[in-house]
Structure formats: C-alpha cells, structure tokens
Design a protein that fits this description.
Two copies of one chain form a homodimer. Chain A is 43% helix and 16% strand. In chain A, 61% of the residues are buried.
C-alpha cells in the first residue's frame, strides 16, 4: 500500500502491539549483567528484594525476542495509544528541504511523555504480586507523574521522592502527582536514614537524583509490601518502551516508507531504546541498515565523553552496578533545563550497541536545542519538551544537510513529550538569558578517576 | 456497521469536515441581530471596522446551512484533528452504571482546548485580507494561546491583552504565548486610552475581561492593518466550532450509536454551540430528539439566573449590544477557578435555543466540579480543565441516575481541554481550601437593574 501520506498516521486499537520486543535476544554481544559491589552477578533473589518478581524476570531475560503484553496493560494502553506517527509537512516546508521528516509523538497523555508506557507495566506487575505500593524518585517530574497515574489506575500507593530543587521550582508537577493520589516528599528528607545523613552532612542542600534514588530504595526495602520502581536505565524499561518502535514500524510499513535516519534524545535511554528497538533488530539480523543517532546534552554527554565501565546507578552507591557509558556516579551535571537527560549513565543495552557501533551519538548545546524547539513549535503546533527538542535539533540539521545535497532522505525522530511544565526554561530562552554548560575536560577526568572500574 | 466500540474512535483525515454547519439556517426563531447603542441594527460596514470582512459575512449569515472550510484552514486542522471520541469504559466501570459514556476530547493540542478551531479560522481570514495583525483579550489564557499559535502559523502579528491578575498568576500561560511570538500586555495598561483612564480611576486594579476587551478593540481600531478577534460569544465562533459536533456525529454514525443526552460546559458558549450544532439541527428539523444540557458555574449562571435582553459584550460598553441571557455587563463574577466560564453573557444563538426550550441548563458548585474532575482523571487518565469538568460533573450525575433507574442511556459530553495550567486550582482542591461562590440574589438584582434593556 502506498497511499498519500496523511499528516498523522493513527493505527487502530487492534494494531497496538500484543508483545513487547526484547532487542537483547537478537544481540550477539549481550549487555553485561548487573553486579554487586564484590563483582558477583546479581541473582534473581537479590534483585527480587528491591524489584517486583515479574520485572526481575524481564530484567534478566536476554533470550526471548517477544514477551506478551498482559491484557490489563493493553487496556490501559488503549486509553492513550496508539500514539500518532506524524509527517512534519509544515517543518519540511519551512526548511525547504527535500527530506521527509516523521516523528513519533508520545506526549498525548497527561504525564506528557513516553514514561507512561513503562509506568503502567510496572504498576501492573506490582499489583499482580499483591503489593501495597511502590516507591520511586523523580527529577523533572515526568516519571513521577506517569507512575502516579498508573498507580491511581490500579489503586496502589505511590511514594515519590522528588529532588528538592524540582519540588520547589515545579510546584505544579508536584500537584499533578498529588491529584493522582501520590505522596510527594522533597528529597533529601527526614523520612529516611539516608536522607537524615545527607541533611546532616550538607544542611540546606537542594538534593540530587542520586540521593532521591537512595531514599526511595531504602523505603521500599523497609516497608512491608513495597518495591522500588525506576523509569529509565534498566533493560526492563527499554523492553516496555519497545511499543514506541513497534507502532512506528507498523505505521511505516502501512505506507511503504523506508526510513534512512532515526534520531532520539538520550538521558537514561528509555525513549531511545524503545524507539530504535525493532530497527536495531533489523540491523543486527542483517536485514536492513539505518543511521541511528542518539542526541545528548553537552552538559551531560555520557555516550560521547563517558567511559564504558561498571558503575553504580546512584550517587549513594546502594544500587547494583551496571556496565554502561558513564560520567561517574558522583557526577553532578550543570543546571541545564532538560531534567530528563541529567543522568550520569546510560542503559546497558544501548551502551553495548554504541560500543559495537550499531548506533552513533552526538551532543548539543541547550541554546541550539531551544532555538530548534521554538522553530518546530511555531510551524508544527506542538510545544516540545526540552528533552525531546534535542532530537528535533539534530533532525533539523540532518534535513538541512539534505537541502545541501539534494537527497530526499526519510528522517524519523522521537518526540518524547510536551513542554507545558517547562515554561520557566522557555522564559529564559525568550528573555535571552539561557546559557550553555558544555562539560569541561577537567570535570570528566575528575569523574572518571573516581569510577570503581570493576571488570566482571 | 456496529463493531465493538474501541476506547478511542479516530476518524481519518478525509473525514475532517469540509464544511462548517451553520445551525442558524435551521432555526425558525433566528437569534436577534447585533445592535448599536441607539437601537439600530449593526451594518456590515460598521462591523467591518472592527472585524475581518469574511468574518463579518459569517457573523451575519443566518441562511446558509453549510459554509466551506478553506483548504488553508483544513490543512492546519490536520495537524491536531480529527479529535478522538472516547468511550469512558473505565469511568463507567468505576461508577457501575449501565449507561454508556462518551466524550469528545478537544485538548490534544498545545493551546490545550477547542479554542484553536476558531483561532485558526480567524487568523486565516485576517491573512487573506492582507492584514498585518490582530488584537484580542484573554482571561485564563486558552484563547490567547490558541490565537498565538494560529498567528504564528500565518506569520501575523498578535497583540494579546491579558487580564492583569492572570498575567501575574499564570506566567507560564503568558510564556507559551510569547514562545509563539505574540506580544502580551497586562490589562489595564498604559498603552491605550481606555487603559490609562481605568488606571487613573482605579489605581492598582487587577483588571477584568471587560477592560481587556476594550483595550484590544481600541488598539485594533487605531492601528493600520489590524482587526479585533474574539474567542467566544459571537455566532461566527459558534460556526467554526461546529467541527466538534460534526466529527462527533460522523463517529457515532460509524458505530451506530444513538445518543440520548448531550452535555457541555457553557461560558460564552463556543464549545457548547459547536458540540451540539448538528444534534440541535436534527431537533429543529424534527428528525430526532436529544436532552441537551448546558452546565454553568453557580458563580456565573447566565442561563439559569440571567435575563434575556440586549446587553453590551464588554464592561466598557464600547462593543455592539447582543440579545442574550446576561447577568449584566458590569457583573464581576466571584474569583472561581474556571476563567473560561466567567463571562456575564451567552452566545445569542444558544440564548435563543434556550429561550425556545431546545436546550436546558443547570448550574454547579466548583467544589463538586473538582471532585468529579479528580474522580475522572484517576480512572480515565486525562487531567481535565476546570471548565470542562463542569460537563464531567453532570455526566457523572446523569450516569448515576441511570444506575438507579437501570436505563442504559448513551451519554455524550464535551471535554473541552486539559488542566495543565490550572494546577494552582487543583492545589486548592487537594489542600481542601477550595470554596464555592454561588451567586447571591442581591447581586443578580443589582446587575439586572443596570441593564440597558433595549428591545429591538
């Protein structure tokens, strides 16, 4: 079928994937396993103390290519999926490029991002296990919002530790979570041992994601009937997010579109892994080739300037270690506006793919990112999240290259979410006060020196 | 066709209406014309000094049932329409009602509401006329945001007068408008004669919608190449908004659904008029019957407690007069949280339909409205705007009536938008500090006494 391509390709409800795609099954070089501090591989039992049982199974499963999506999760997906694949006709016209630009838009839900795809899965398995509730951390707030929505749907308690600076600067994000019934605690807090220690050591601190992780993990392990859940980095999250790529693939096939370039923003890697999964699978199976580009902020460039090594997932060093591209678990990124991309490490599966040169990466400055965001918003209507706008920036640059060369490439990017709760950042941009924070070499060296560098 | 009904019914791009439906053509009792202060009917020439030429034609046209939607407008519609018609399966289950509940969701665009349907039409005609720009007022900010987006698309200047209290309390709404290139001025301001007079008379005032209208109209009439545009009340706006009802009708027909009850929130009437247009047409032509319910806030109940009379559309009395249900043009509603419903009058066409008992109306308290909003959000996912939640509240009450009687009614309501910029209101509700402001009789009498009461 090769119809005229509409502005928005909507699949039917029946076309929402019935299985997640587990890219690891098609990887010859598997991502390295999670390990304990002593170098031993984390066992199922060890992980089950922190995570829900079914999620541990998924975390450890690198052999089954397809994993069924339970009906309970698919029913929730039906409330906001399929997400549209949009042809950026107006942006193409504005750029006067021969390229065709497509974007998968994941922002049409109240959480405002793709995070809901994994949040509902994690809440489902927690409920299935008969748990009372879950704990988590949130920085910018997208993940916390998504998890609050998912827990409200399944009538689970939800305890969110929100980085203090965000808690104070983004009262409305906090209020969305409260509206969905979550309890939101600014981190560091007096409610945990870790929190009290940090407050004693650094009175008046604004908190960090690493500290919030530690508090959430501590609470989950001490409260009866609770587990800890996480919105990125883990391979189970990448698995759930594969619905993004699978729907995209179905929509493209429907209209006979062969994509050349695939672009996604990368923080912990949840969106990028989900978007590229089926396409990377085609590369690994030798069926097709794609130019896959991860875009990260110059202030937190784990792929382009990090080290591939075992490292902790949190600053407090109470989580297992993952082999990943990392800037060091004690790395504190500069105060850029893309809260969702301010993580020191990268999903282990994506790290392996990058190491094997299946995907490449670039880093961009946030002033360029906001310039592209506004250019996009003014013609395409959608006001993008700063995180998503990293992908927009590179998509525009790739389309402008096509203008020079005359190539009519098909460019796809992931538009992970909307910027409605990021207007303070846009205000900075509109006022001309936005600054860049490219990482300085001395900061990288400092971080790398502190890595535990355990080779399993 | 009577397939299993999906969670979301999405029409195809081809099914976006090609014509607006002009309900006035099917009305035997036409809405009364706009008049000048001296009682004379406003001529086309008089109206053209304030409004764009094509829009004046549409305002005066009460004979053509269908008016073509230009391709330029349809192309923009394609970026965010068709809007889904959603079956509220989860809400039905929660309420344990035999009723089937449907809602037309107009919030999937950056303006966050249905306002964009008319904004893009008005911007299109302004561009077609070769104008440089348009002026308008905004209260809560939905209309101003929608118009900014539309003007950005057509590269038109956009000057928004934003009620001062909103300008200060909703800096993020303001910032969205700036991001789309609009200039936003807090009203009253020093930039207009009216503004300066009001500031002199009431130093330190927080402004009002009536004052902002006056400033916007003054600027449009004095600047070369500018016209004034308005997001509600006018019949041209009701015409553009008919896409809501037309798409709904197409979707219902596709699945063989016969609706019994239609519910919409009502401020100036733009959403309600658009949602009900084709259905009210069926009633007027004797083809069908529906129970149509307008829902208004108890703090600003123009239908249920207003007077049907000629009145000004603004507090400053510089606009023409419209025959409508009104609380008096000097009526200042109590500080409720539904900014979009705080208008003293009602669209003239809807006023006539209400007078002729084609539609009925109820008023509700905002604490009930927020209770229903949260109940809805927690099961259906979407966080509704306070305005839209007036319709939700009555839809829930109608569904609960069905639970008592055992009737399996089909209930439809309009979900006009999202509440992402209304979190301060939700915070009040979450904190238990939200109050009701039902209108007191003495306030009504005071307003009615001051009406000009001109019978044309």
């Amino acid at each position: 079928m090769n119809n005229e391509i509409p502005y928005k390709i909507y699949l039917s409800e029946q076309e929402i994937p019935k299985q997640w795609y587990n890219l690891r099954a098609d990887m010859k070089n598997k991502p390295a396993p999670l390990i304990n501090e002593d170098g031993s591989i984390c066992s199922k039992e060890e992980l089950s103390k922190v995570f829900c049982d079914d999620l541990v199974e998924q975390e450890l499963n690198d052999t089954d290519a397809f994993i069924d999506i339970p009906d309970g999760i698919r029913d929730f997906y039906k409330m906001y999926r399929p997400a549209p694949l949009i042809r950026a006709y107006c942006l193409e016209k504005k750029l006067q490029t021969p390229a065709h630009i497509y974007y998968k838009f994941e922002g049409n839900n109240t959480s405002g991002s793709h995070k809901l795809n994994s949040a509902i899965a994690q809440a489902y398995y927690a409920k299935k296990q008969g748990l009372k509730g879950v704990t988590t951390e949130t920085g910018a707030g997208q993940w916390g919002t998504a998890l609050s929505m998912a827990c409200s749907y399944y009538d689970l308690a939800c305890k969110v530790y929100m980085v203090k600076v965000s808690y104070e600067q983004k009262p409305y994000r906090r209020e969305v979570m409260r509206t969905y019934g979550a309890s939101v605690t600014p981190s560091p807090s007096e409610t945990t041992k870790t929190g009290r220690e940090i407050l004693k050591k650094f009175p008046g601190t604004n908190g960090s994601l690493g500290c919030a992780v530690s508090e959430a993990v501590e609470v989950a392990s001490e409260l009866d009937g609770y587990r800890y859940v996480l919105g990125s980095v883990l391979n189970q999250v990448a698995l759930h997010q594969s619905v993004i790529g699978l729907e995209t693939q179905t929509a493209l096939k429907k209209y006979g579109i062969k994509i050349d370039t695939i672009i996604g923003c990368a923080g912990g890697g949840s969106n990028l892994a989900g978007l590229i999964a089926p396409f990377a699978g085609e590369i690994l199976r030798g069926e097709n080739n794609y130019d896959i580009i991860a875009v990260e902020p110059s202030s937190c460039p784990s792929f382009t300037r990090g080290t591939y090594a075992y490292d902790y997932c949190d600053t407090g060093r109470i989580t297992p270690l993952a082999k990943m591209y990392t800037l060091g678990s004690d790395f504190i990124p500069a105060p850029g506006h893309s809260g969702g991309l301010r993580f020191h490490g990268m999903n282990p599966m994506l790290s392996q793919l990058y190491h094997d040169k299946i995907i490449r990466a670039v880093s961009v400055n946030q002033t360029d990112v906001f310039k592209s965001a506004v250019e996009f918003a003014r013609v395409e209507g959608i006001l993008p999240a700063p995180e998503s706008s990293h992908a927009i920036d590179i998509a525009i640059k790739e389309a402008l290259k096509c203008k020079e060369t005359g190539e009519a490439k098909n460019i796809l990017f992931g538009l992970t979410g909307t910027g409605y709760f990021d207007m303070a950042a846009y205000q900075n941009y509109n006022d001309g006060t936005l600054k860049d924070f490219p990482l300085e070499d001395k900061e990288i060296n400092k971080s790398v020196d502190k890595l535990p560098i355990i080779e399993a």
